[in-house]
Amino acid sequence: SSSSPGIESFSIRSRAAALGLAERVLLPGFRGDLDRIFADADLALLTSRNEGTPVALIEAAAAGVPAVATRVGGVPSVVRHGETGFLCADGDAGGLARAVLRLLGDPGLRDALGAAARDHARERFSAARLLRDLDRLYGRFLPDLDRGGGRRGIFHHHSGELR
Asked: With b meaning 16 or more CB within 10 Å and e meaning fewer, what string describes 52-82?
């Protein structure tokens, strides 16, 4: 299913048509089957000039897909250059293209970076990690909190329930 088109979709479609690429450019909108899409992806490409924490790259990494991205905002916290993908300077189209071609041309490297990306995403962005971080944060600011039944921490780590 598709959501309404994004703000830039008209200009992107127009540009693709002008370049004779309209048949090769797909802008599907919202998708609920990212696992199927990532299973077929060789890499994730993010060319943002400004970015917070790129959830799309976290999802790709969790699926074992390496990334090529611009080194802006929160991107370096998701993509480790040379370990889980490649980072290029904002505006470095040539560097992005070279990184994409390198990954497409080297399946072994692509697989290795993808496996490292999966491990990094699980360790850095998992729900369990979030709960541990929140538990530590609350423990620092609420040291006298009754943690119930001698339990250490305010979260029940198996279910994520608040205690």
From this structure: eebeebbbbbbbbbbbbbbbbeebeebbbee
- pTM (two decimals): 0.73
Name the region of 106 (left: φ>0; alpha: ψ -120 to 50; beta: rest).
beta
CA atoms of 110 and 67, how far apart (whole Å): 9
pLDDT in tens, 15-59: 999 999 999 988 888 888 988 889 899 999 999 999 999 999 999
Give every CB contact of residue 72 below 8 A, 6+ residues apart in sequence.
Answer: 48, 49, 50, 51, 90
